[in-house]
Amino acid sequence: MYEGRLSIPYLTPAGIVDLRFRAINHEEPKYLSLPNSATRLYNVPAYFEALSWICVCEGEIDTMTLSKLGYPAVGIPGVKNIKNHHYKILADFEKIYVFADGDVAGREFAKDLARKLPGVIQIQVPENEDVNSMFVKYGSDWFEERINYDIAV
Fold it and tell me: What does the CA dihedral 118, 123, 124, 125 come to, rounded to 10 degrees?
């Protein structure tokens, strides 16, 4: 059932704690999880590396994109999968840059985070776009123009 899909490991300081599988050729469902898998934040090591700010994305691929650009980023595996403890984890940061997908669900996700957490900065992604598609179209400059942070040495 997972054959031909991209395997995405969920790494924590304890090691690999979960795997998700993403379709590559527009198959449905787009994502598959292991049986009895719990919803987790993706890219937990970024939480420990970030200083006063962090980026939050929808999904693993967008999180990978921001991480490769050098931004501390964690991902929620689908907007309906945010849990109460995720809000508590994110509350540790002064600034939270939310990169939600350019659709109704993404905009509601960003608004929800802004209502529940201080310091949320919603980065508007155009309709039918996401972090990865914006990177493919515009490169890293698009993100550098939108993330205003102080570099701590």
Answer: -140
